[in-house]
Amino acid sequence: MRKVGIILLLLNIMFAGCVGILQEDATEPADNVEQSVSKTPPPPPPPQTERTAIQTATTEDPANVDSDGDGLSNAREQELSTDLNDSDTDGDGLLDAAEVNTHGTDPTLADTDEDGLSDSAEINTHGTDPTLADTDEDGLFDAAEINRHGTDPQANDTDGDGLSDSAEINEYRTDPTLADTDGDGLSDNAEINTHGTDPRANDTDGDGLDDSRELDLETDVLDGDTDDDGLPDGAEVDMTDRFPGANPVQKDIFVEVDYKSKLSRSVIRDINEEFEQAPVTNPDGTSGINIHIYHDDNLRCEDASGYIRDRIQYGCKSGGETVTSPDNAGYYYIQIVSTVEMPGNAVSNGGLAVGSVAFVELSSDEITGHIFMHELGHLLNIRDPGVDSRQRGYSEYQSVMNYLSPGESLGYARSDWADINQSVQRVPGATERAIIDQSDERE
Predict the structure, then answer these.
(1) Fewer CB within 10 Å: N-end or C-end of the chain?
(2) Other C-beta atoms within 10 Å of 423: how many?
């Protein structure tokens, strides 16, 4: 039995070896025989997307994980104190990465420069610098320029007039969006720095002429009466009917005469010559004064009479109406009447000046002209000690204001012209406003 067992064991070993040899031979192709069976290749891996690539990368490097997909790794967001789970930490409409890497803004502040505009609005809407509160450096915050003043936050001089927006708003109170705030034809800058005029008033001196027009006419933009004759420049330039022949740079005197009889032409000619030769210098460099005598109303009354109480009151009484003032503001006023009587007696005085009106007693042409010039001298405020006096001889004080002057004389002394030159700056009984506000039609 033992022999039988040994024999079976040896047979099993031999059988196993033969099987192995057969299997090895089966896997090797025979020499010079083409293998007919091929293997099937494995399937290609699925294509990678940007996200899967990032996932693969981040999976490979935990330091590059970007939880909110804003372009900043979590590690970088921790350094910046931004929200790892919010791509726009400050909610200003810009991704955190864009703020850090592109715009230089603070991703934790919606308004980096604290000018009142969000970073996104500055970049995408207004084109301003989100890191500068005052992009154009004109002294005004960007938000104030846009929301309050209507100025351009990218231009420090929005209207291009040479004044910064801040200066116009805070210093000069002009309109920073208009180069010529008052519309007078002069830029705000020119008015302030060249002419000294008011950029908020088109007529700085209130004479009725725009500032630019005065510069063209060479009148004084800062003086409503350039020639100091009591008439505003605007009246002399534009009121050609009421003030015909007036010149804003030469002194003019207008006299309204209500009369029983007019002055003769020869007397008027001599009076004109007297004023033309006056030693008075005008702004245009000429000398003399232009006198304009206007015969207005033919009086119906015979005399000028009055009475004394607290003051003398005189006037030409006609139909119950007392006429004591001119129809035209800006005119000196004289009445030529038949007689002039002092109150309380019947003695003829020849003439009398009361307030802003003078009365001339009608006589011969020469005498009437003499009295006319004497009373006009009172209206012109001649104050020489020899006025209405017989204490100084005519050779000493050669003036029609001297009671000792010849009856045909019409002239004033040189000292009289100094008084006249000063007094004509204001017409008696008239204000500058009253002169400008009346119509151009002479009455």
Answers:
(1) N
(2) 17
Where is pLDDT greater, at 1 or 271? 271
Q: Which amino acid is at 164?
A: S
CA distance 331 to 85: 89
What DSSP string describes 141-176? -HHHIIIII---TT-SSTT-SSS-HHHIIIII---T
Nearest to 355 by CA among 387, 384, 326, 385: 326
Domains of the chain: 56-133 (no CATH), 233-437 (3.40.390)
Q: In what order do the strands lie in the sheet with 339-340?
A: 321-323, 312-318, 303-308, 339-340
Which residue bears the tokens 């024999």? 7
Burial zone of 119 (CB within 10 Å; 0-12 exposed, 13-18 middle, 19+ buried): buried
CA distances from 128 to 93, 103, 132, 148 (A): 16, 12, 8, 16
What count of other Cβ atoms lies within 10 Å of the Cβ of residue 73?
A: 19
Closest to 443 (Cα-Cα) out of 344, 317, 323: 323
| Whether residue 95 has pLDDT greater than 90 | yes
